Amino acid sequence: MFDFLNSGQYDVLGAFWVTVQLTLYSAAGSLIWGVALAGMRVSPVPLMRSFGTAYVNIVRNTPLTLLVLGCSLGLDQTLGITLAGGTSKEIGFRLAILGLIAYTGTFVCEALRSGINTVPVGQAEAARALGLSFFQVLTLIVLPQAVRAVIAPLANVLIALTKNTTVAATIGVAEAALLMKEMLENESDAIFAVFAVFALGFVLLTLPTGLLLGWVSKRVAVKR
């Protein structure tokens, strides 16, 4: 049933390695962009609050497939923005990461904003009374506590991101979903076996992440 794995025709591990790379790069970028958006959402500057709110509400409710396709068709094919150039596969890989960051950053932002709301207002007021700027209050007082409070929600965002990397197949990125599609076309007599292999692969990627970050969440939880 699983003879196709030994044929040497399909690089299953290589495809999942591309998925892992997409996840790691996108997770790092999403965390940075999500923190920036969260800062805008709670900023005392009305223009920044308005931009953050509009961006989150619009992008979060836009299908991820449209965003990834928009990065490919709009940036690469229309505007000629290739993000440092390279082969078509390298450009597609980077554009897929950009689309995933733009989308996932909104969920990171909302998770962090919920964590910020758990920090007592008195702590921020006391910090401002000591002469700290808004940026200092946010980075030194509020965010460290907020992040500790939302490890579990951020773990869910990371798991969703891992599964969302399959959308990169729409622009030809050679990750697990694209290989699965090829295998389903070529191995029509082993469809259930192909599904089982890729389902197991994604379980092995997401389950340890959830368990590890769940344990971390309990260890670093803020005692109130």
Question: Topology of this protein?
Answer:
Blueprint: H1 12-41, H2 46-60, H3 64-78, H4 88-116, H5 121-129, H6 134-149, H7 151-164, H8 176-186, H9 191-220
Helix pairs in contact: 1-2, 1-4, 1-8, 2-4, 3-4, 4-6, 4-7, 5-6, 7-9, 8-9
Written overview of the protein:
The chain has about 220 residues and is mainly α. Helices cover about 75% and strands about 0% of the residues. The mean pLDDT is about 85.
Key words describing this protein structure:
mainly alpha, single chain, 0% strand, 224 residues
- What global shape is seen? globular
Number of helices: 9
Structural class: mainly alpha
Beta-strand portion reads under 5%
Number of strands: 0
**Poorly predicted ranges:** none
Mean pLDDT: 86
Secondary structure: helix percent: over 70%
* Distance between the amino and carboxyl termini: 55 Å
| Cα radius of gyration in angstroms | 21 Å
Helix-strand pattern: HHHHHHHHH
Task: Please summarize the sheet with the most strands.
Answer: none
InterPro entries: AA_ABC_transptr_permease_3TM (IPR010065), ArtM/GltK/GlnP/TcyL/YhdX-like (IPR043429), MetI-like (IPR000515), MetI-like_sf (IPR035906)
Protein name: Amino acid ABC transporter permease
Pfam family, one: BPD_transp_1
Transmembrane segments: 20-43, 64-85, 91-109, 130-151, 190-216
